[in-house]
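Sanity check. The docking grid for magnesium ion depends on where the pocket ends up, so I'm generating a full predicted complex first rather than guessing from homology. Inputs follow.
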Amino acid sequence: MREEIKKRKKIALLGSTGSIGTQVLEVVRQNTDKFEICVLTAHSNDQLLIKQAIEFQPNTVVIVDENKYDFLSNELWNHDIKTYAGEESLSQVVQMEEIDLVVTALVGYAGLKPTIAAIEAKKAIALANKETLVVAGELITKLAEQHQVPIYPVDSEHSAIFQCMAGEFHNKIEKIYLTASGGPFRGWSAEKLAGVTKAQALKHPNWEMGAKITIDSATLMNKGLEVIEAKWLFALNSSQIDVIVHPQSIIHSIVQFEDGSMKAQMGLPDMKLPIQYAMSYPDRIYSEFPRFNFLDYPTLSFEKADAKTFKNLSLAYQALDLGGTAACALNAANEITNAAFLNEQISFLQIAEINEKTMRQTDFIAKPTINDYVDCNLEARAIATSLLK
Ligand code: NDP
Ligand code: MG
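Predicted complex below; grid placement will be based on this.
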């Protein structure tokens, strides 16, 4: 029988120069018969973007920072690659006719508008940019349903849940357990956390990631954002989402069904696996990724997450229960405080303090429109910025 010839999946990769972006390109490099890059985008890293464009020969590249545009277009003029600059271009290029899948590997609130544009153009989404679902999960999931667009999770925990759900989508989830490594300060008291430095916070025990998510992992904000992300991806309420600290990061998350049975997905911590699954779903494709050896990990351990000391985690649950614009305000505050901590403007503990105050002070809208999210994001950023002083 003649084997079906599958056409290569055409990909728009937003945030190609980041930690996730470069790993997406690694997966493409290993599978050039399956994937083809059509669009690459970066914020300001023109050098790497040019290198990537020359290697992958996309149709189009975008640099958000307009000051970098002239250099980029000069370097690429004889490569038959279209070049654009500015934030608005992201929302335009994701709508290109030939694109099959948009991988959102850019960081922060900036992911929201291009993701909306991609869904409106009926492009499948491989979502790494969790902030989009935190800010406007209700709007995004409704829009995706309306346009019949699948959202494949890239985040390792959500990929684990999604993998456990294969063949089970008709079955009700009783509960999920998101695993957390606990970050570099697992078990630390508030007193000890008061003096934490940027360098200490940037040392994650198990994962190599971009700076923002590494700080979010140290404060447990990342796990909080993931709780909200899980709510929208799997249509759950807060009582169905538990966080369990698992320092080895081997079990990536667990689903418990109505009969009490639990399914977990496990493997070595390597983002390329969930990235590849989101890109190749429903197929699994061969990889050379190192295999897990049980004898290297004789003990897999579990602990309760300390949401009292690491307040960001409880703030995320509060935002989730409040609904409306609460999580948008929390996310905006956290983008400001995270950057301020990285700039050594505020202490580690001030991150959650300012996040909490901002969430309380920002106007709350129970049934937000897209413009309400935009306004809330701006208002919360202004409040958090004023609280830095
Ligand atoms: P990085 O900081 O490493 O990369 C971010 C990418 O986005 C870069 O390409 C950057 O461009 C671009 N970018 C930054 N700011 C903007 C902006 N305002 N507008 C457009 N593009 C922008 O981040 P990560 O790869 O670590 O994370 C990306 C997303 O994936 C985040 O949402 C994160 O939470 C999520 N994620 C990451 C994981 C990881 O292992 N890293 C794991 C799970 C989820 P430039 O290089 O030019 O600045
Ligand atoms: Mg994760």
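Relevant for the grid: The mean pLDDT is 97.
Also worth noting: Residues 323-389 form a domain with the Rna Polymerase Sigma Factor; Chain: A fold (CATH 1.10.1740.10).
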